[in-house]
């Protein structure tokens, strides 16, 4: 059977999008998801996202990493799904949808999508890194030579090492550019390599930089391999609320396979 698909990208984090409102996609077929995401034998993407109907909200997001496994929240994927829902005529400018980590508010104007992320109330500060969950788990670590190191080797060591082990964590390396701007590179679990951008990752970096007093700003610019994102938040007694991830999300092409 032919599978109709759409391809979207958000700052270079790219996704195969499937309209599954009729429940025609076999969600148990891990190999098929991995095949569709394969850059040589399939369409090619960091992940695959299903848009489904929801009884209370505008739609439901189901996210798979490129290894074929369903995973936790994808911030850039959520932003791209909002653009996909708008392009399909499911929503107009504002929306509320459900993802694996809960209900998300979002808005879209042109190709700029603002996505509300989960509140963060636990931030583990260790000697050399910070660990927090922004819908997905993130290790955040400073890296002075950020432009010039082997992220796939160093990222994999941390992702598979203690305390994360097989379940893993995404790994973000960060360098401060100025008081409100940071450069970030991310190794993503489930892709098992560097992606050009990670939405939950830059959200984690912005909050971690604020929590560790690298910045006092509550609107942070994040430079990633695939472009620029912004994260804003309110902090109250160590709890980060009203967290928003903002940036472009674009349709690339559609096809069938
Ligand atoms: N690219 C994503 C994160 C996707 C989930 C991650 N790979 C995991 O399995 O934890 C983003 O933009 O947030």
UniProtKB/TrEMBL annotation:
Enzyme class name: isomerase
Active site: 74, 198
Single GO molecular function: diaminopimelate epimerase activity
Swiss-Prot/TrEMBL catalytic activity: (2S,6S)-2,6-diaminopimelate = meso-2,6-diaminopimelate
Intracellular or extracellular location(s): Cytoplasm
GO cellular component: cytosol
Domain of life: Bacteria
Residues flagged as site, Could be important to modulate the pK values of the two catalytic cysteine residues: 138, 188
Keyword terms of this UniProt record: Amino-acid biosynthesis, Cytoplasm, Isomerase, Lysine biosynthesis
Binding residues annotated for substrate, in chain numbering: 13, 65, 75-76, 170, 188-189, 199-200
Keyword Amino-acid biosynthesis: yes
UniProt xrefs under SUPFAM superfamilies: Diaminopimelate epimerase-like
GO biological process, one term: lysine biosynthetic process via diaminopimelate
Pfam families: DAP_epimerase (PF01678)
Entry EC number(s): 5.1.1.7
The UniProt record lists the keyword Iron: no
Pathways per UniProt: Amino-acid biosynthesis; L-lysine biosynthesis via DAP pathway; DL-2,6-diaminopimelate from LL-2,6-diaminopimelate: step 1/1
Gene3D superfamilies: Diaminopimelate Epimerase, Chain A, domain 1 (3.10.310.10)
Homology family: Belongs to the diaminopimelate epimerase family.
Record function comment: Catalyzes the stereoinversion of LL-2,6-diaminopimelate (L,L-DAP) to meso-diaminopimelate (meso-DAP), a precursor of L-lysine and an essential component of the bacterial peptidoglycan.
PANTHER family, per database record: DIAMINOPIMELATE EPIMERASE (PTHR31689:SF0), DIAMINOPIMELATE EPIMERASE, CHLOROPLASTIC (PTHR31689)
Subunit structure: Homodimer.
NCBIfam families linked: DapF
Name this polypeptide is given: Diaminopimelate epimerase
Source organism (scientific name): Seonamhaeicola marinus
């Amino acid at each position: 059977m032919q599978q109709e698909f759409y391809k979207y990208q958000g700052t270079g984090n790219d996704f195969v999008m499937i309209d599954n409102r009729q429940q025609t996609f076999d969600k148990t077929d891990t190999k098929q998801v991995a095949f569709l995401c394969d850059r040589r034998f399939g369409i090619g993407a960091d992940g695959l996202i299903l848009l489904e109907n929801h009884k209370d909200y505008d739609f439901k997001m189901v996210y798979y990493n490129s290894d074929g496994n369903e995973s936790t929240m994808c911030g850039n994927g959520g932003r791209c799904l909002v653009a996909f829902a708008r392009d399909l005529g499911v929503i107009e400018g504002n929306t509320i949808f459900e993802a694996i980590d809960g209900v998300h508010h979002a808005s879209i104007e042109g190709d700029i999508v603002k996505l509300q992320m989960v509140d963060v109330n636990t931030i583990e500060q260790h000697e050399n890194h910070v660990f927090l969950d922004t819908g997905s788990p993130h290790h955040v670590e400073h890296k002075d030579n950020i432009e010039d190191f082997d992220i796939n080797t160093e990222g994999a060591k941390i992702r598979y090492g203690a305390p994360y082990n097989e379940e893993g964590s995404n790994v973000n390396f960060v360098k401060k550019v100025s008081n409100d701007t940071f450069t970030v590179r991310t190794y993503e679990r489930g892709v098992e390599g560097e992606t050009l951008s990670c939405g939950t990752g830059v959200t984690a970096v912005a909050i971690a930089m604020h929590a560790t007093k690298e910045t006092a700003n509550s609107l942070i610019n994040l430079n990633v391999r695939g472009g620029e994102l912004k994260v804003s938040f309110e902090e109250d007694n160590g709890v980060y609320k009203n967290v928003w991830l903002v940036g472009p999300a674009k349709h690339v092409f559609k096809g069938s396979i």
